[in-house]
Amino acid sequence: MKKRSIIIAALFIFSIADLSLIAVYLKAIEGERITLLDGLYWVITTMTTVGYGDIVFTSHIGKVFSMFVQLYGIGFLFGVAFPYIVIPWAERRFLLSVPKEVNLSRHIVVFGYTRLTPFLCRQLESLGLKYVIVESARENAVKAMEMGYNVILSEVSEEVIRRVRIGSAMAIVVMWDDVERSLDVLLTLKDLNIQKIAILSDPFYAKYLHYAGVTKVITPKSVAGAQLAKFILERERGMLNIKNIIGDHGMTEIIIPKRSLIAGMTVGQVEEIYGIKVIAVCEEGRISFRPGEGYKIREGNILLVFGDHESIMEFYGGVYR
Questions:
Q1: How far apart are CA 222 and CA 200, in angstroms?
Q2: pLDDT at site 3
Q3: Torsion angles phi and psi, residue 298, rounded to 5
Q4: What is the Cα–Cα distance from 318 to 227, expressed in whole angstroms?
Q5: Residue 121 and which of 3, 73, 80, 172 are 20 to 30 A apart at CA?
């Protein structure tokens, strides 16, 4: 849908530009000079059937051109823009029915559709675990549905316990970074004997979530600390923790330090030089899976690479050369 809208918008912009140039040319033939801005102004007012009449074609070809622009504008608005862009957008935002409850068991209940939620859901899917996202904002719920995630639209209340079958769930994960919303969920579910995990950027508030009954608080800083410890050990030992996949081929994570020769190179260049495959790149907390060949590697990136042990070690040497 988004790709189609971009294509239609691009074609429309190009057509307006072309019609504006033709308008300027035809007015020149009629002996009147107008600017390109005047031509653009005339095309838009004519296509929208406003037609102020301050710029008028007097020649036969000019009048035929005017009629064509009017019909083109009406045809585009009612034949393309409304059925393919406006109406589908309105249906998705206002008419699409978002589920209000699910019938699952041994599943994970995820509260909140944030920028980290898709990454969590993909991980759960890869492990074969069932999940449902609980989102109170309709726009976010619709967005999650469009991305193919299992989601329900519901406020955080005792009713949500029944709607998502929390009693038969394995755990709940609170994704909101808003402490008040996280506390609201935890206090609502305080009497349930179930694992409660929260994602929180500021560890200062973690103690309050523990008071509310959370089992574990995960913070980006703790993840960064684990990566830093891993980085220090690798540098100290001069070796990588390569996880074997098949034969002598495996995967590992490598951090790109400052002033590394790799920084500034593209994924395609790295893969060609070292004979490895870059599976994913983590940049400022955002994960890009299977980045394109033109993706530029930067300092501080964490690369998930695949290849034989010799190629990976050669790449590792190049990173810290």
A1: 10
A2: 67
A3: -125, 165
A4: 20
A5: 3
Q: What residue type is 69 in one-letter code?
A: V
This prediction's pTM: 0.45
pLDDT of 157 reads 82
pLDDT of residue 53: 79
pLDDT tens column, 96-144: 566 777 888 888 999 999 888 888 888 788 777 889 999 988 888 888 8
pLDDT in tens, 175-191: 887 888 888 888 888 88
What does the alpha-carbon distance between residue 43 and residue 66 come to, in Å, rounded to a whole number? 9
93 CB-near residues (< 8 Å, 6+ apart): 139, 142
3-state secondary structure string, the chain?
A: CHHHHHHHHHHHHHHHHHHHHHHHHHHHHCCCCCCHHHHHHHHHHHHCCCCCCCCCCCCHHHHHHHHHHHHHHHHHHHHHHHHHHHHHHHHHHHHCCCCCCCCCCCEEEEECCCCCHHHHHHHHHHCCCEEEEEECCHHHHHHHHHCCCCEEECCCCCHHHHHCCHHHCCEEEECCCCHHHHHHHHHHCCCCCCEEEEECCCHHHHHHHHHCCCCEEECHHHHHHHHHHHHHHHHHHCCCCCEEEECCEEEEEEECCCCCCCCCCEHHHHHHHHCCEEEEEEECCEEEECCCCCCECCCCCEEEEEEEHHHHHHHHHHHCC
Whether the per-residue pLDDT at 305 is higher than 80: the answer is yes
Q: Which residue has the tokens 């790799």?
A: 262
Q: Say what the pLDDT of residue 220 is.
A: 61
Decide: 271 and 312 in contact? Cβ < 8 Å: no
**Which residue pairs, CB below 8 angstroms and at least 24 apart, start in 16-20?**
16/40, 16/43, 16/44, 16/47, 19/43, 19/69, 19/72
**Between the CA of residue 105 and those of 118, 162, 183, 314, what are the distances in Å?**
21, 12, 25, 47
Distance CA 148, CA 138 (A): 15
d(CA 182, CA 198): 8
